[in-house]
Amino acid sequence: VKILRTEQEGNRARIRELEQRNDDLERHERNNQQEVADLERKVNEMTERLTLLENELAEKQTTAEEMYRLRNCVKYETLGYHYILFCYIREEMRAADRPLLMVGPLRAERVDDTPEEPTPIEQQKPGLEDMTPSVVSAAVISEKSNGVSVVKVSSKDPNGNTGSE
Q: What's an example Gene Ontology biological process for this entry (predicted)?
């Protein structure tokens, strides 16, 4: 009976030891499962963040390409506008050098009213040919209702006063 009791106590001690090992293994398994779940969550968060950053980078590249294209477009349109304006002003200046077609008076009693000397106001107004290219480039071109083009130029006289013709 003593042998059986010692055997039984030995078996109980082994069972307790096995149960403790089993509990330790189960605890480690739960910890491992929790760590795996945490790592999966972190991987998913990082993947989502990476995707957002990739999308943001793609948008930024698209925006940069569009901005580059628009800058070039504006640059070429501005150059084209300045070239057209330059050509138009050059033509107007050439046209100013050409003799004008003079029509005689419609009535016999009409006297030629062209003054011999320019008036003081006309002496103060600069002509297009007297201006530097930078002043001529500041010309504003408009068209009257009858189809006649007019070049309006802002310039400074020698005294520094601003005038327009």
A: vesicle transport along microtubule
